[in-house]
Amino acid sequence: MTARARLIGAVAAVVGATVLGVCAAWPIYAHGWLVITAAIGTTIGCGVALLGARRWGMLPTTVVLAIAFALTVVPAAVPSVFDTLPDGLLRAEIDGIAAIVLGWKQLLTLSLPVGTYQAVLVPAFVVFVTTAFGVTSLALRSPRGAPVAALILVAPVAFGTIFGASAVSAPLRLGWVTVVAPRELALWLAAAVLGGLWVWFTAGAKRRAALRLGRTRGERRAGSGRATRSLIGVVTVVVALGVGLAVAPVLEA
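Given the sequence above, the corresponding structure tokens read:
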């Protein structure tokens, strides 16, 4: 698989994870600025990962990511600053950086939805940036290890589940069966499908290319590697479904 194909696949997977993450986190914020936060975070994560994979090692790339995060955290995740410019810019920057550590606890203590209060969007920004950066970096730097990124792809949905409202969505009646928490279950099912598709796309690419070229020798030697990558896919699906079922029981008589 070419680097371009891996990049396109990674961006598509990240966009899918971002959309699911916005849906999962919507009850937390219930504000349109969440979409802007997600879009900026995804763009920065993918962009820095792409630039770094072409020019730098992982450590310099991580430093560049940290700088890019610091420069964009205020407009992306502290929109209240626009009401206090220019005097409130420095204070907003300090709050934004501090929220990398403190924002998670704040989300657990405030009543939902929190909207754009202070720097509460920063944790979501962190999740979107790191998810995009992690998936894209693995896809471009380590083709053999790329299937592991399936575990990263479920992070946005996990964020929305962990920090979301304690009350789940209203049950959905389907004939004689009642589906409890249909919204939450659907999100985790979608995350599981996304992770499975990513593993299929990355782990099976080398074998599909070999088959197209008629090269079948050495398949036994590659069998253990394929088995490992397949296991990653199974684990991803099981984890996603397991968390979804734990958070919201599926069926209620």
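The chain is about 75% helix and 5% strand. Try to locate this feature in the token string yourself.
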